[in-house]
Amino acid sequence: MNTEPSKTYFDEMRSADGLVREIYQPYAAWLSQLPEGTLERKSQEAELLFRRLGITFAVYGESAGSERLIPFDIVPRIFGATEWRRLEKGIKQRVRALNAFLHDIYHGQEIIKAGVISAHQVLDNVLYRKEMQGVDLPNQVYAHIAGIDLVRVAENDFYVLEDNLRTPSGVSYMLENRNTMMRLFPELFANHTVEPVEHYPQMLLDTLREAAPAHVSNPTIVVMTPGSYNSAYFEHAFLASQMGVELVEGQDLFVHQQKVYMYTTEGPQQVHVIYRRVDDDFLDPLAFRPDSALGVPGLLEAYCSGNVSLANGVGTGVADDKSTYLYVPEMIRFYLGETPLLSNVPTWRLSESEDLKYVLAHLPELVVKEVQGSGGYGMLVGPTSSKAEIEAYRQRILAEPENFIAQPTLALSTCPTMVEAGVAPRHVDLRPFVLSGKDIRLVPGGLTRVALREGSLVVNSSQGGGTKDTWVLED
């Protein structure tokens, strides 16, 4: 696998001889006819729109209330329908296996008994919730909303970078990116048959309804947020508004006789489904962290009694732990009896002595991540790090090697991107959003994240990345 992405990478718009690939040809023809300065003006208009709408995110580690506008790139990323269907099939397969794994580890634990994964890897994981053992969930679904991060290294060569199964974010940006593009470039959508994404909120609402306790036919659904200082608060409010349900905080809910109610001006109203954007630890101060002011006392008991459903389920974190990620291809074989359609990135687990030895000898070439990290925090990108940063990270690894994994520095594909010098290639990844209810569904495309700095491979918005609209063209 190439470890020098700045020198060798797959350009999604142009072939090695500089010719525009077929899927991009209509867009490239349109782009070539634009009057000079048009893209710059449209980019400024997009920024004004995002500011007006308040599409910001809070940045942890900065001063209280510090918010940033996520940079939006107005050059779309384009997929063909056939290419997308192939990806979609692999994504659905992976999410099916992950939900089967979650149900199994809280019930029969057959995968442990079969020796596919060790009891230590699952049962001693800090994200494993013993309280969930034997608890049956509607449709046996734990991860109702999943964000599967994909990277491309060649024309038909995609890898899964990680699985986000706890509280995956970013879908509001996918939707607003499309709204903004349609507003700024209506002529593009008149000339391109782009598959829609705007029905995602209805799909999400349908999924949440299907998650309701079995005895409930017309469930009351709420979105539970940690509050306005959370980095993804815009998204929580946006999705609640789009679905036409209440946005609540823990203090708006209470438990009585193992049932959850919300305060309303007309008195208490029972709640049947909570789309929670609050981590497990903070959900219920009686069951988890007693110092949590974000949760609802007694919520876990109501949940385990089957009187309220949570999306995502309690205890899903053990399946998106980066050390568990290594076993997903085996989960697909074990639970589904199928060959994985999407590959993992080759990964070294630093709790293994030989892996640790190799990684410590090759830190300047590798990407190292905390097994329970997210958002691009706490990672080392060896090729772009200083000697001092690498040595400091080496000491962290030596102190707790079991807390880290390492991967090659992939030659991520690039897409055309609007930068100061004009349109130039920048590295991208893709996060499709997968909804699991009675069926598994996803809208065509997802959130493309782009590393705006030349040569950078870090696409996370918290680390200076931006986003762009993702088009799947109909056949």
UniProtKB/TrEMBL annotation:
Signal peptide: none
InterPro entries found in the cross-reference section: ATP-dep_Glu-Cys_Ligase-2, CP_ATPgrasp_2, UCP005522
Top-level lineage group: Bacteria
All copies of domain Circularly permuted ATP-grasp type, residue ranges: 76-451
PANTHER family: BLR5612 PROTEIN (PTHR34595), SLL1039 PROTEIN (PTHR34595:SF7)
Name used for this protein in its record: Circularly permuted type 2 ATP-grasp protein
Organism: Methylomonas rapida
